[in-house]
Amino acid sequence: MINPMPSPRTPALDAVRARARMIERLRMQGIRNEKVLAAMAAIPRHQFVEKGLAFNAYDDSALPIGWQQTISQPFVVARMIEILCNGRELGRTLEVGAGCGYQAAVLSQLASEVYAVERLKMLLDRARENLRPLRLPNLRLKCSDGTLGLPEAAPFDTIVVAAGGIKVPPDLKTQLASEGRMLIPVGDIDQRLLLVERQGSVFKESWHEAVRFVPLLTGTE
To answer: Quick one: which of 69, 164, 157 has its CA closest to 107?
Structure first.
């Protein structure tokens, strides 16, 4: 008897299967928002990491992307966006710390407009390369000091910060629209996610999961 030839495997097919497993794992970890899960499923995370790490792209772990920066683990990305999406649309969104561009791409599936800023020009150039094949018309990138926000595009319905500071930058609070939300890791050694909700001139704060992010720095390089 002649054994049948094994089905051919391609990197693209493997990536699709790995992404599907990632989505099921996110469900098991407690992510319930189906729109968030669909956005995570739509973006090929392996295209945002070094080729040598592509095999690990859908693991639930942060991975280095150069310049002492990391791409956040899938659960953290999904959980942050789920918190911001709770009961509302993201609307006009500012991401501080674009990194390799992955989270901005996920946000673009849910927000009407996404403005992503990154202080490291060479890393932002890498993000542009990563994002170019996806042709996302509602996403704009800029090299800028994220602690200053993006006043020329403010106000924002949503602000998500992908770096940890010891306090909330005041410029980011003032650039929130009325009824807007911001999620930012806060803490020196031990960080937790802080949700800031603006209600007119009042800012309501609530704490969420413990996390670990690279430091939120000023200036550009």
So the answer is: 157
Digit-coded pLDDT (tens) for 88-97: 999 999 999 9
Average pLDDT, the chain: 93
Please provide the size of the chain in residues: 221
Backbone angles phi, psi at 164, to 5 degrees: -100, 135
pTM: 0.92
Helix (H) or strand (E) holding 157: strand 156-161
d(CA 125, CA 122): 5
Q: Which residues pair with 109 in a beta bridge?
A: none
Work out the end-to-end distance of the chain between its first and last CA atoms, rounded to an integer number of angstroms.
65
Sign, CA dihedral 87-93-94-100, equals: positive
One-letter amino acid of 22: M
pLDDT digits (tens, 9 = 90+) for 135-148: 999 999 999 999 99
Taken in order 46, 216, 77, 128, the sign of the CA dihedral is negative
d(CA 178, CA 139): 22
- How many distinct helices (H) and strands (E) make up the chain? 6, 9
- Cα 181 to Cα 117, 187, 205, distances in angstroms: 18, 19, 10
CA distances from 121 to 42, 111, 126 (A): 27, 24, 9
Residues marked as catalytic: 72
